[in-house]
């Protein structure tokens, strides 16, 4: 922990499981089998040994994963909706995103940008402006 980090800089993210749902009797065109899945812990994606995952299917869920990892408002559709259509238009498989458990992370372990100081000064913003000035002037 850097000397500028407060003692408690912990935040939590949900671990996610993304599982392929294959309706019985439907032809699957994206190379998936029912139950194929990956898990996401922080920024790390894990596949079971020997199992693949379509890059097109991954592309369909990727924009949603960072939001799904975070606590969202109960009325937000991001809180309720979990199924994403396979991007292959003739494939009936779904990709189901499930929040599993929460995992704790230290702000100081994942970024060099300091936390916002209590009382109004935004050190992170100042640092960005300072870096921008160095780049442009
Ligand atoms: Zn599919």
Automatic annotation (TrEMBL):
Protein known as: TIGR04076 family protein
Taxonomic lineage from the root: Eukaryota, Fungi, Dikarya, Basidiomycota, Agaricomycotina
